[in-house]
Each structure stands twice: as structure tokens, then as C-alpha cells.
Amino acid sequence: QVQLVESGGGLVQVGGSLRLSCAASGSIFSTMGWYRQAPGKQRELVATITSGGTTTYRSSVKGRFTISRDNAKNTVYLQMNNLKPEDTAVYYCNVRRQYYNTDYWGQGTQVTVSS
User: Fold this and answer.
1) Parallel, antiparallel, or unpaired: how do β-strands 10-13 and 3-7 relate?
2) Across the chain, how many H-helices and E-strands are there?
3) Which among 110, 109, 106, 111 has a CA at the least distance from the CA of 24?
4) CB-based contact 14:85 (threshold 8 Å)
5) pLDDT value at position 35?
6) Cα separation of 89 and 41, whole Å?
7) Which pLDDT value is given to residue 19?
8) Buried b vs exposed e over 33-68: b needs ≥16 C-beta within 10 Å?
9) How far is Cα 81 from Cα 76, in angstroms, rounded to an integer?
10) Which residues is 87 bridged to in the sheet?
11) DSSP structure class, residue 28
């Protein structure tokens, strides 16, 4: 059974930093990533990383956010620097189960950036 445990959200001032973590268990995962959903908006992709380390980012976070993973721990991280009010959202971890190509979601963690 696949389980995801997210941590690291919180309240931070503009320009501050936060680090999100998502520990996955129960399988082997190919792509791991982070999405976010602000109030009244659709969920959007933030960043992804493959098992080989290839990364993608949405343009608005490039240069500020860094996604990484520890394959031995099945954990994906999102280092967020120079946070802006528009980064305020619930952040969701997403992982794709290798060979089965099924996606799983974390419970979400709130990130609030105050100006």
C-alpha cells in the first residue's frame, strides 16, 4: 500500500524560505513532484523530478525553487527560496508508481507567504 507523508509547510514572510518533504513508501516510484492549489484556482504543477534526476519547473518558480529526491529514502524535497505572496497555496506531493504508472497524492501542506 502506497503511503505519502508530507511535512514542512507553514507561515513565512515575503523573501523567506521553506523546505517541503514528502516521504513515500510501499513501492518504487518513477516521477515525483509537487503541485499547488490556491483558493479558487485549479491545481497546478510546480516541479517534478524523475528517478534519474531530470527536473522540470513552472516558469514562475524557476531560480527560486529547487526540487530534489533521495531515492534510497523514497523522499522528494522542495526547497523554496525568495517566497512571494503568490506562492501561497496548499502544496501537494505527487508520485507515480513505477511499472504501474498510477499516481498518488499526499494530504497537502499549507504554505502561506505574508507581505
Assistant:
1) unpaired
2) 0, 11
3) 106
4) yes
5) 98
6) 10
7) 98
8) bbbbeeeeeeeeebbbbeeeeeeebeeebeeebbbe
9) 16
10) none
11) -
Residues of the chain with pLDDT under 50: none
Task: Cell numbers for 8, please give them.
Answer: 514542512
Distances (CA, A) of 115 to 43, 64, 84: 23, 17, 8
Q: One-letter amino acid identity for 36?
A: R
Residue 78 is predicted with a pLDDT of 98
Using CA atoms, how far apart are residues 95 and 22, in angstroms rounded to an integer?
9
Q: What is the pLDDT of residue 33?
A: 98
Confirm if 113 and 91 have CB atoms less than 8 A apart.
Answer: no
pLDDT (0 to 100) of residue 101:
87
Residue 61: helix, strand or coil by DSSP?
helix
Q: Which SS3 state, helix, strand or coil, does residue 80 take?
A: strand
- Pairwise CA distance, residues 30 & 38, whole Å: 26
Of 93, 70, 78, 79, the C-alpha closest to 2 is 93
